Automatic annotation (TrEMBL):
Residues 40-207 form the Calcineurin-like phosphoesterase domain. This is Calcineurin-like phosphoesterase domain-containing protein. Belongs to the metallophosphoesterase superfamily. YfcE family. Coiled coil: none annotated. One of its GO terms (cellular component) is cytoplasm. Transmembrane segments: none annotated. PANTHER family: BLL5683 PROTEIN, METALLOPHOSPHOESTERASE. It comes from Roseobacter cerasinus. GO terms for molecular function: phosphatase activity.
Length: 271
């Protein structure tokens, strides 16, 4: 399902993965307000609900903002009432086991209205900006939970680009999410832009998360400061202590398994 936003002439705020982190979501909306950016100029790459303690609140905040939202795997799974997150973690891996803690909480703490809204989220959002056409997806079109990394082979980007254009026609640039890392990759077809996620740090040892601002045809990646201590404390009170709560404070994910070897932290043991 495609949602076409038409032409957006002003700045476009791009973000992903609020991850049930109400403090980060409110901080992101505060950034938009301070920059004079309205809901019609905001696009989320999905996964509003995930690791944090405030899934329903985050859904309500994003819906009230008027931002366009692409369906992430979490929207698809929770919307369908599925029993697992569909994140693409290898079965039996640390991340897969951690999901047994946070996913049931997330699924149980959104109401039917939120689930119905998730089911209506499009798979692809498109818009035009500064004469170029953009497609916004979650992970991939071949697989919504595909992890596309900044150092992947060119063939990965070509495969996904072909899949996008098979569905919606030619595009000049692609905006994607899911992997949790913000990056800009030049490809043979155009730019692959990942603005990162706002609900969890990008495994760099800092509490700040990331969002992107597209203006004048150029995206810049910005740090998002928010009250990580309050978000972590809420997770503890909710019993969400599988490791993501400490990740908010340390800036490191509880497991590096999903990361390619050369994107892992040299100071941490894998897994």
């Amino acid at each position: 399902m495609l949602r076409d936003l038409g032409v957006i002439n002003g700045p476009v705020l791009l973000f992903g993965g609020p991850y049930s982190n109400a403090q980060a979501t409110r901080a992101l909306l505060g950034e938009a307000l301070a920059r004079g950016i309205t809901g019609g100029q905001m696009i989320c790459t999905g996964d509003i609900v995930a690791y944090g303690a405030a899934p329903q609140i985050c859904v309500e905040l994003i819906r009230q903002s008027g931002a366009a939202v692409v369906a992430g795997n979490c929207e698809k799974q929770i919307g369908a009432g599925a029993l697992e997150c569909g994140c693409g973690f290898e079965e039996g891996s640390t991340c897969d086991m951690l999901s047994l803690g946070w996913y049931p909480y997330a699924r149980a703490h959104v109401n039917e209205a939120a689930r119905a809204w998730m089911r209506a989220c499009p798979d692809i959002v498109s818009f035009r900006h500064q004469g170029a056409r953009y497609a916004v997806i979650h992970g991939g079109v071949t697989d919504v939970a595909r992890f596309v990394w900044p150092n992947d082979d060119a063939a990965v980007f070509t495969e996904e680009w072909d899949a996008i254009e098979d569905q919606i026609g030619p595009v000049d640039h692609v905006v994607a999410g899911h992997c949790g890392l913000a990056f800009i990759r030049e490809t043979a077809r155009g730019l692959w832009l990942n603005p990162g996620v706002i609900g969890l740090p990008p495994h760099d040892g800092r509490q700040q998360t990331r969002f992107g601002l597209l203006d004048g045809g150029e995206m810049r990646i910005h740090r998002l400061r928010y009250d990580a201590e309050a978000a972590a404390a809420e997770m503890q009170r909710a019993g969400l202590t599988q490791g993501y709560h400490t990740g908010l404070l340390t800036g490191y994910w509880p497991s590096e398994e999903i990361l390619p070897e050369d994107l892992r932290s040299p100071s941490l043991a894998s897994g």
